[in-house]
Design goal:
28% of the residues lie in helices and 21% in strands. It has 5 helices and 15 strands. The longest helix has 21 residues. It starts with 7 loop residues before the first helix and ends in an 8-residue tail after the last helix. The relative contact order is 0.19.
Length: 287
């Protein structure tokens, strides 16, 4: 497995790409409320990417081997949908939970990737708890990133926290390296053994995007060829950030002014540095 180490120039470009992806989520957040359809969410996000940011969507017409072209500019995964949900005419209602996954491509050819959960109205206690624990899982994984650590450290802490809260970790999908290509090495599993997998080195860039189910981990694929759902139809949640391994720790690249802060259980320098970085963010440069 060959994991590319990004150059300083590539890191600068990735900071811009990931910030732009996050700002699509900032833009769409006020529209995510009861009555809007996921198709309208997709249209609004697409218009913002193309006409305001001058970026393009990495998902639109994306067709890896064995898959039909993906027909939308963002993925919208609702309730028991785990990932890759296709936007459509269905309107959101109170109590729904929704993941919106955005990947933009800058004119310079760099990919920025991030996703967030949205709770529509007054959701159930289980739905809120699932979204919160999944958010904590992502940040615990981020906090495990540093030079000399291993990919397995990330998966181990995510799995321990999810299963410790009586939830399950989806095994079939994982985080991934990213840069000038949508998907690069390494694969970042959200379960595993501490000390396993490749050693982390400065210059690595990859996503951490745990998919956590309220019920069992088993999945099914819908007939559209893309949408992945929980086999038992239990709720599922996902959060995603793109991170850089630095000389002394980790930098979260997909931050923006609208990002929620790290959870309280993540303490220490990472929280202080991340909160300071979010507070100081200027608008990302538009091409």
């Amino acid at each position: 497995m060959s994991i590319a180490l990004k150059t300083p120039e590539e890191i600068r470009e990735m900071r811009t790409a990931c910030r732009l992806a996050a700002e699509v989520l900032d833009y769409i957040a006020p529209f995510v409320k009861p009555g809007i359809s996921t198709a309208e969410i997709d249209r609004l996000c697409s218009d913002y990417m193309v006409n305001v940011q001058h970026t393009t969507s990495a998902t639109l017409n994306y067709a890896p081997p064995g898959y039909p072209p993906y027909p939308a500019s963002v993925c919208t995964s609702l309730n028991h949908q785990i990932c890759h949900g296709i936007p459509g005419p269905k309107s959101l209602k109170k109590g729904d939970i929704l993941n919106i996954d955005v990947t933009v491509v800058t004119p310079q050819g760099f990919y920025g990737d991030t996703s967030r959960m949205f709770i529509i109205g007054n959701a159930s206690i289980l739905a809120k708890r699932l979204c919160q624990v999944t958010y904590e899982c992502m940040w615990l994984g981020i906090a495990a990133v540093r030079p000399g650590a291993h990919l397995g450290d990330i998966g181990h802490i995510i799995q321990r926290h999810a299963e410790g809260n009586s939830f399950s970790v989806v095994r079939e999908f994982c985080g991934h390296g990213i840069g000038r290509r949508f998907h690069e090495e390494p694969q970042v599993l959200h379960y595993g053994q501490r000390g396993g997998g490749s050693e982390l080195r400065p210059g690595m860039i990859f996503t951490i995007e745990p998919m956590i189910n309220a019920g069992k981990a088993a999945i099914s694929e819908l007939s559209d060829g893309w949408t992945i759902v929980t086999k038992d139809r239990s709720l599922s949640a996902q959060w995603e950030h793109t991170v850089l391994v630095t000389e002394d720790g980790v930098e979260v690249l997909s931050l923006s002014a609208g990002c929620p802060p790290p959870p309280k259980l993540i303490d220490g320098p990472l929280v202080s540095a991340t909160n300071a970085a979010v507070a100081a963010l200027p608008p990302a440069p538009l091409s």
